[in-house]
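Holo model, V47. Inputs:
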Amino acid sequence: MTTSLRHIANRIDAGARLSLDEGLALFRSPDLWEVCRLAQRVRERLHGRRAYYNINRHVNYTNICALSCKFCSFYRKKEDEGAYEFDVDAIRDEAGRAQEAGATEIHIVGGLHPWLPFSYYIDMLRAIRESAPRLHIKAFTAVEVVHLARIARRPNDIAGVLRDLRDAGLGSLPGGGAEVFDDRVHDEAFKGKIRSDKWLEVHREAHRLGMNTNATILYGHIESLEDRLHHMDLLRTQQDDAIAAGAGSGRFQTIIPLPFIPDESELEYLPGPSGVENLRMLAVCRLMLDNFPHVKAFWIMQTLEMAELMLQAGADDIDGTVVWYDITKVGGAGTHQETDVNRLRRAIRDAGFEPIERDTLYRPVMRDGATWEVAEA
Ligand code: V47
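Output:
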């Protein structure tokens, strides 16, 4: 082990928070396996041999988007071929099917549709509540929440809009839309999108309402290593505040590092991150975000094979059965990107861990076919 990694290892064992310089040393270390081993030490301290998955269903209700982010291949303009929007009945039916199949969660995100009214989103949540009352609704990135506040003509009332969404059935916020918290990268790759202060504000308000949320970082495009570390630092500082606010406050549950997938985006000329970079990024997230309980290797974007490896490099969660996913398509996949519970459990076991089905809030699920109960933690 190099001297600088030995120093970092001692600090990790003492439970110290790593500095941004130490983060940079982890990114630059030639000893990738040692970095992964350090992350694994933290992961095992927190979760032992447990690794989580869930039975969920993603719904991307529209790909029509007012924005044109350069990294995104999902968005369409209204007149483009392939542009779509689901009506509330279609979403209600999908939620009903998900519940029948035994899912515990529905994960809903979409583009910033220029014309759908605020009532569409409220009706969507109510319809899911009605047709599938057992599903936890994890929906709307911070970017969508700001858009909803605008179309509700309450742009400065994020807390009030979140309250309305919660009263209609919203359970928590997913981590999307964070990209990289840096103005240069923002202006180059996703101009027009909310900036970091707004993303953080939405999550802060959600936490104040007692809602849990996730966070992401989209890496491997035009950002620098320093940008990534700055992003992680802002997240862990905000998490400190959420934790300090006490038991009634929501928290960030999970960091999900998202590898940039260049195919069919305006940044297609970039190579995207390598497998080794994906592994290292996952490990560095585990080490830097010392107050985040979970690190997710989202198998749809990482591939299930890489997600297995990541369970040995700091990850404790691989997400779920998914079923439909339209935002990224790795290796020529289509919208139907489904895996089954047996494959998820086998992947976790192959990686040397004990598979635990969880609900959205990371409570263990006891299951008999499509019938399930949340176990006492
Ligand atoms: O917000 C878009 C990203 C996100 C690309 O909270 C891309 O549990 C890579 O946030 N290459 C959506 N990434 C996905 C997301 C997510 C996924 C799984 C679980 C959770 C959770 C959240 O995907 C978007 C954007 O940041 N994205 N295009 C791309 N070409």
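The CA atoms of residues 55 and 103 lie 5 Å apart. The first helix runs from residue 3 to 13.
Archived with the compound record.
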